[in-house]
Amino acid sequence: MLKIIRKCALTGCLAGILLLGGCSDAAMNGGSLLRPPRATGDKAAIQDIIAAEAGGSYSLKYPQKGENRSAIILRNENTDHEYALALYATENDTKLNVSIITYRADQNKWECIGTYANTGSGVDRVMFSDINGDKREEIIIGWTAYNSAQKSLTAYSFKSDEVYEMTVDTTYDELIAADITDDQSDDLILLSLSTQETPSVATLLQYSEQDKRPVGTYSLELDSDVISFANIVSGVVAVDTGMTLSTSSGERTGTAQSSSGENSQYAAVADTSESLPEVSAELSDELSFTDEDSDPAHESTSDNSHEDPPDERSAGNQVPVINVTPKNASRQRMRHGILVDGKRSDGTFCTQMIYFDVEKDELTDPINPSYDKTPAGQHINPTGRSEAVFSRDINGDGVLDIPIVSQMNASVDESGTAVCNQVSWNNYDAGEKKMVLALYTVMNVKDGYYVCLPDRWNGKVTARSDAETRELSFYLWNTQTSSLGDKLLTIYRFSEQQWEGEEQNTYILLDIHVEKSKAVLAARLFTTNADDSLNLSADEIQTLVFAI
């Protein structure tokens, strides 16, 4: 009998819980689709089936990335289709196995309807998505290999009470399932980094309900100077302003989801007629970055040796994937796709936009139509930036925004490390074929917050940070003398102990919560007579500062 483990993660439980109702099924697998646990006897029946399929002792294999981190995953796709997925290796076989076990409601029993072997060395991730348009979720499993950095992929589809394997011949470095062809089912988009033999490529695979092989395969060459993928977001990547807005049909509905904790309450959007700033070549803050796989040493066996699977909440190597649902725009005006933020070989970052051009029947990247090179051999990408700031829906309008970084106004003798960078967040207008400004911010990544800049501050205010005191201050900028003017605002970061020792009535306590920290953020406003319109009120500052 398995050792009983009571630890419950935020989005997953250990497979050992199968023997007790210590956590709900929803907690076990992050599945809002799941109903409360059945009796212990059903859990034991699933365990018995796995042992029978394995033919003896076995070790469970845990996915390294993604939302589903259990080796045994329970799914309740609908009221008539409950099933379990088990990932394991047998004692005498080097192959990994996946068994699909379904619940027969008419017979009141569990039954294995398919066991498949894979030559991979580990499990990269497990996803569930309808990729063939049959209104039922497919099982998508990524596999790692000892001798390759790229991963392989298998997919399994249900038909009546049977399951069959779908062919996926393309390998990947990163993967996302999203409907970017607007055919009401998700597409598989596989991203591969360049090698000595091949360039970086995005590959889109389409399936139909009748075919086990892809019915459509599209590819797009990406920037081969990108050495790792830092962030992937899917949703509305562009809006065609040349088309008439229609709200009567075709709207996509749902709730925006994000893994990076953005706050979408800020509604003051900057004038979109502003031109984009020049991109700074200087780093404002040194950030650590890793894209290595986690240690896969979290395995358990059927003989009282269960260990905890990797904790997805602490997996720093995972590429964040954000799904954004559009608001207040018709399907005809929207372009659904993905934004891929990558780290380049020189340590800078850039964004690539990928969406499907229906008229041309091809994948396209409109902001990087071709990768022309400078005489020095550098790829030209207008989104190139020095800071690790990643694409997101920064203002909550349902359209993803692309960041471009530039240094704020500074005198020639100022220290570059104290001068803040300004981030302009931009939408892509598919009708006008250009990026337009949505919002300016100053990002304080180290302390976990950002400040939205009021429109009236544009070009008239600059900012400085003090890494030692953890202060971020905003000043008037004197364009005639190229020097700092009066101070307008300072934001402070205090520990809880420091805050208790402060004269709190001299500050405005900011109503935001910084993730993974018990820090207290507070502000102090200053008044300038040089230009009264640039002063802030206590109420306004609460609408300008948000947690990252």
Outline of this structure?
The protein has 548 residues and is mainly beta.
Written description of the protein model:
The protein has helices at 25-29, 40-54, 496-500, 538-542, and strands at residues 58-61, 72-78, 81-90, 96-104, 109-118, 122-129, 138-145, 148-159, 162-166, 174-178, 187-192, 201-206, 216-221, 226-239, 299-301, 321-323, 334-344, 349-357, 362-364, 402-407, 421-429, 434-444, 449-452, 461-466, 471-478, 483-494, 508-509, 520-525, 545-547. It is mainly beta and 548 residues long. Strands 14, 16, 17, 18, 19, 20, 21, 22, 23 and 29 form a ten-stranded mixed beta sheet that branches. Strands 1, 2, 3, 4, 5 and 15 form a six-stranded antiparallel beta sheet that branches. The model is unreliable at 1-39, 244-317 and 325-329 (pLDDT under 50).
Q: Which structural traits does this protein have?
A:
elongated; six-stranded antiparallel sheet; 5% helix; disordered N terminus; 548 residues; mainly beta; 29 strands; ten-stranded mixed sheet; 38% strand
The number of helices is 4
- What value does the average pLDDT take? 77
Biggest pleated-sheet summary: 10 strands, mixed
Instruction: Indicate the proportion of strand residues.
Output: 35-45%
| Number of strand segments | 29
- Alpha carbon gyration radius: 26 Å
Contiguous low-pLDDT stretches (5 residues minimum) are: 1-39, 244-317, 325-329
Q: For the record, give the distance between the C-alpha atoms at the N and C termini, rounded to a whole number.
A: 45 Å
Q: What gross morphology would you assign?
A: elongated
Assign the structural class, choosing from mainly alpha, mainly beta, alpha/beta, alpha+beta, or little secondary structure.
mainly beta
Oligomer: single chain
Q: Can you give the helix content as a percent range?
A: under 10%
